[in-house]
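This follows on from our talk about sequence and fold. I would like you to pick a protein and set down its sequence and fold. Go ahead and set the record down below:
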Amino acid sequence: MSLKDDIKTVADSNTWGFEYGRSDFNNLIDDVEENKTYIVMDPIKVKPLYNNTGATFGHRYSGYFMMLRKSTLDNLYSGSSSAKYEKHIEPLYDDVEVLKNGLTGCNGDYDIDWDCTEIVNTFSENMDGLIVKYTIEI
């Protein structure tokens, strides 16, 4: 299995949406549901890892994906239970951990490092969430 397939497996097991492709194509997601998490993943960069004899011993995968939820343009950013941060962004930090734990369950050899940046009002569907920039070694 590939990293993309493993992430899709975790998404499917949590009933999250999953889209893979370039950002300009991912903007065209159809039928986005309220209160559902979506993983929108850009193409993965892959770098082979070599030992001192030149043999491949693993791979480094890097790139980014977004974890998103449908929002409305006119909500406040934070300060109330219906604000973008409290309703859409904050719960996604837990979902990122669910994904990380799920990947470890798919393949215990994953060495995962990532950081998150909050985003609002992205895509034509007006979604809020996190950009997750990752480096994963297998």
About this structure: The chain has a mean pLDDT of 89. Residues 84-106 form the longest helix (23 residues). DSSP finds three helices and six strands in the chain. The CA atoms of residues 22 and 117 lie 19 Å apart.
